[in-house]
Design a protein that fits this description.
single chain, 163 residues, alpha/beta, Rossmann fold, 2 domains, 3-stranded parallel β-sheet, 38% helix, 12% strand, disordered C terminus
Amino acid sequence: MESSLLAGVDTVFHLAGESVFNGRWNVPKKEKIRASRVDATRRLVEGIASCAQPPKKILICSSAIGFYGDRGTEKLTETSVSGNDFLAGVCEAWEHEALRAQDFGVRVVCVRTGVVMGKGGGALAQMLPLFRMGLGGCWAMVVSICPGFTLMIWWGHALCSRA
């Protein structure tokens, strides 16, 4: 990461990551999912560390509810331990890399979101064709199958920068 891009910045939003909805989860796909989160976050934090004027306040790093793994009806909180499947391991390593920015005086927030739905992309763009063909089932079924199903709205940068 070019550290000069971070000079004097107050807040960094890190939302990058390979889609978990495109393609089968074979070995190369899993490596892309992991690298796009863990390795990219490591490079970002290394950029923060080498920056003459590091971000002054906060790194907001995307993560996922996949951190918890499949735990059935167990009540989960931010202090719950991670699960033990592939995605839980990726999320744990992803957050670990982000939290390293604390060593450089930057506050870190890891935001664990569910399925990202949005008009411009995310899972919705992948699901709509199936629903339009009558293959998607009813919405209530999707919600009951995906307990972490959420509607995430990312605010425009102008609003965020005032926060």
